[in-house]
Design goal:
The protein is an all-alpha fold. 72% of the residues lie in helices and 0% in strands. The chain has one domain. Helix 1 runs antiparallel to helix 5, helix 3 crosses helix 7 and helix 3 crosses helix 8. The longest helix is centred in the N-terminal third of the chain and has 63 residues.
Length: 240
């Protein structure tokens, strides 16, 4: 009888160890897969970010060398189509990333609002090219040597939009780099590790669909996306 009890104990212990080891291995494999997906998306984001600003500078150079008095989209110029294509590729890459963010990260209303604001800002270049206008964002709130004759309020607004878009880009990049698993508490991470669970990406299908719809329906924030970023990130007020 004692031999049977000892044998059952050994087998139970071995089975339990196997189950725990299998779950932990599966959990870590899933964490690795998800982080690889994050890093791929982050790489795509960096590429799109560079393409966005490259297209913007190209368009800026084009508009500054366009004869005054012209307006609208210069459809007859192939160079403009090249710039528009680059801007569209950057924006489409951002849209791809937003699908991932909606399904795995947009768990709260503030997150969705910020992702929507990022999307609205990312559309600004394509919309400017479509209308044949320069994207007049400014990296500095004041410049005594540039934009002489331009109303100060206009320059400050352009600066606020530029600053807000930069902040939103960092928000997206850091979200992808850090991930929800690392943002969880230490006790939660340990518990999920020893239980062999994957990262805490719990958004279900309906929540993901609702998040993506909320992110892409930006009509109501089109005129305030930069103020949303300013409030969310506590950006310092701009002196007038």
């Amino acid at each position: 009888m004692a031999v049977i009890v000892a044998l059952v104990s050994v087998l139970s212990t071995a089975l339990l160890a196997w189950l725990i080891g299998t779950r932990v291995t599966y959990g870590w494999d899933e964490v690795k897969r998800q982080r690889e997906s994050d890093m791929d998306s982050l790489k795509l984001f960096y590429q799109c970010y560079g393409k966005f600003f490259g297209a913007w500078k190209a368009w800026q150079g084009y508009t500054r060398n366009t004869p005054s008095g012209t307006s609208g989209f210069p459809a007859s110029d192939p160079k403009v189509w090249e710039i528009l294509r680059a801007a569209g590729e950057a924006e489409s890459g951002f849209e791809t990333i937003l699908v991932k963010l909606a399904s795995e990260y947009a768990h709260s209303e503030p997150d969705r609002l910020l992702f929507a604001s990022f999307r609205q800002g990312a559309q600004s270049l394509r919309e400017a090219i479509r209308d044949g206008k320069d994207l007049t964002w400014k990296a500095q709130p004041f410049s005594p040597h540039r934009d002489r004759g331009q109303p100060n309020a206009r320059r400050l607004l352009d600066y606020r939009k530029y600053r807000a878009f930069k902040a939103l880009c960092e928000y997206v990049a850091v979200t992808l780099r850090v991930g929800p698993y690392k943002r969880a508490s230490s006790s939660t991470r340990l518990r999920r590790l020893f239980l062999g669970l994957s990262q805490s990406r719990t958004t279900n299908h309906r929540e993901a669909i609702a998040a993506l719809i909320a992110i892409t329906q930006t009509e109501d924030i089109g005129g305030r996306w930069w103020t949303i970023a300013e409030d969310a990130f506590a950006l310092p007020p701009v002196p007038t």
